[in-house]
Design brief:
The chain is built from 9 helices and 4 strands; from the N terminus they run ααααααααββββα. The strands form 2 sheets. Strands 1-4 form a two-stranded antiparallel ribbon. A two-stranded antiparallel ribbon has the order 2-3. The chain is mostly helical and about 200 residues long. The protein folds into 2 domains: about 90 residues, no CATH class; about 80 residues, Cytochrome Bc1 Complex, Chain D, domain 2 (Orthogonal Bundle). The chain binds heme C (2 copies). The site of one heme C has 16 residues, from helix 3 and helix 5. One heme C binds next to helix 7, helix 8, strand 1 and strand 2.
Length: about 200
Amino acid sequence: MRHTFSITAGVAAICGLLAVILYIESATTPGEQSVRSHGCLLCHPELFDSPLPGLAEQHTPGTPLRPLLTQVIQSSHPFVSAEAADNIAEYAHPRQQLALAHTRRGDAARSLYLAKCAACHGSRGEGQDDRYPPLRGSEWLTAEPSRLPEILHQGLQGPITVRGKEWNATMLPPGVTPGEETESLIRYLRKEFAAKQHKTP
Ligand code: HEC
Ligand code: HEC
């Protein structure tokens, strides 16, 4: 009985070790292999999908990210060799670059919202008593075909209905520039304030 148990445990341990080796060896680039063999993703699941903490502050937009990434990997983890750090940076920097760009665009849209909309619609989109309608949960954010670009460029004049309540006021053009600024503000409004039940999988 004891023997059977220790044989089973031994076989399981060997299988586990083989699985780890296979996992590391099946990586397709030296960078991916280093990420796997050092277990980076155990502590940094964000290595690919969101910016590493602190990276946004250290990186100047428009400058190459890869050398900076090599440097911060090495300075935070001296046990990682220069070569491995460089390989990891080569492998990880395109996704980090994208994640940084997304974060910066989201930050810019939030600042724009706070500067141009929040005075009336509230910093959390809650609106203001009977003066300004809410954006949180508003069907105007999700209705298709969308009239949002038009509203952002030309303003809006009532009567309108928002979440079952009638409004009859005037919103002057809030001064949003057509193009990238409009698109990123709309993405922000939908992400922050749109009713969640129609979330696409
Ligand atoms: C056992 C957990 C652990 C593992 C494994 C690990 N890290 Fe870290 N890492 C940390 C901690 C904790 C910090 C924060 C340290 C500090 O504040 O200086 C950090 C900091 C960093 C930073 C700096 C972030 C910044 O912007 O300042 C980078 C880059 C980084 N790690 C990359 C890696 C890479 C690449 C690997 C794989 C080679 C790795 N880490 C493996 C725990 C870990
Ligand atoms: C000076 C106050 C004011 C500012 C600033 C303002 N709005 Fe409005 N907004 C209104 C009013 C009043 C209405 C209702 C107009 C009506 O009755 O037709 C409205 C309606 C809307 C609607 C449709 C109704 C709803 O609640 O969903 C949207 C969407 C909207 N605003 C978005 C914005 C965005 C985005 C900004 C910033 C770029 C902004 N507004 C800036 C006052 C304002």
